[in-house]
């Protein structure tokens, strides 16, 4: 076995998987402000940008060949309420960001998260009644949120809320309003995970959550077959692309998803995964660059067609260099 591993050229020749810049989706945090580049404390190297900075920041990603960005808003506390009503407004921050990018950097894909957690004062992805998250009532709001994003010019609607039936309902609403070309990437197998911690800091949604638990809508990390049922439903309801989230602890799900459905399949290397690699790197405990590249190659090996990763720009620069 070692004969093929002797030299760099031979190792390259026998390599089975390769990461390309075309595999990367870059999540970008947006916040109200001017010339803002605000560090996210728990994610060293990640910033919140104001809309006026997006032409430059997203322009660089486009120049590097990154196909798409995923936008996440930091919502100021005074704009939050129990039903996340700010999410439905055509003049909300995400819609402003989409319009700015579509104007200044038209040739990059723009994806928007559909969920209520950045917008609700309790931090849940849906609306509450007696400490329960209501399903269909939440879906109605999510539909209006998705339509606002589509009107702003969003290319890919990405529901991450994990309410039942939302993909079909959003698809029908998009079609009815003339947005039949807007794509849907479903966060289909999204687990109730500890690895989202730094993200909640980044978007300011570390709300109280109260007695209700995200485990009543996000998946149990113990389950695999259930992920396939979630995927089957979202695909039947009209998802164009599917996602598994988090990434590294769920590579088995990525592989099963790809094998079972042959859909465009993405993994989200989430905030906690980024934070772990960054923190260990900063401490000199691991080689940050190598760990970053190795972790992303793992997604390719598992069958992912692409990865949402906070490392996207760094990786793209490295591959170009
Ligand atoms: C919103 C959403 C979350 C993430 C993406 N969309 C947080 C959550 O569900 O609690 C997490 C992304 C990350 O950790 O990088 N529903």
Automatic annotation (TrEMBL):
Gene this chain is encoded by: hemB
PROSITE patterns assigned: D_ALA_DEHYDRATASE (PS00169)
Reactions catalysed: 2 5-aminolevulinate = porphobilinogen + 2 H2O + H(+)
Biological source species: Nisaea acidiphila
Family assignment from sequence similarity: Belongs to the ALAD family.
Positions that bind Mg(2+): 230
Protein name, as recorded: Delta-aminolevulinic acid dehydratase
EC numbers, comma separated: 4.2.1.24
GO biological process: heme biosynthetic process
Keyword terms: Heme biosynthesis, Lyase, Magnesium, Metal-binding, Porphyrin biosynthesis
Record carries keyword Metal-binding: yes
GO cellular component: cytosol
Pathway per the UniProt entry: Porphyrin-containing compound metabolism; protoporphyrin-IX biosynthesis; coproporphyrinogen-III from 5-aminolevulinate: step 1/4
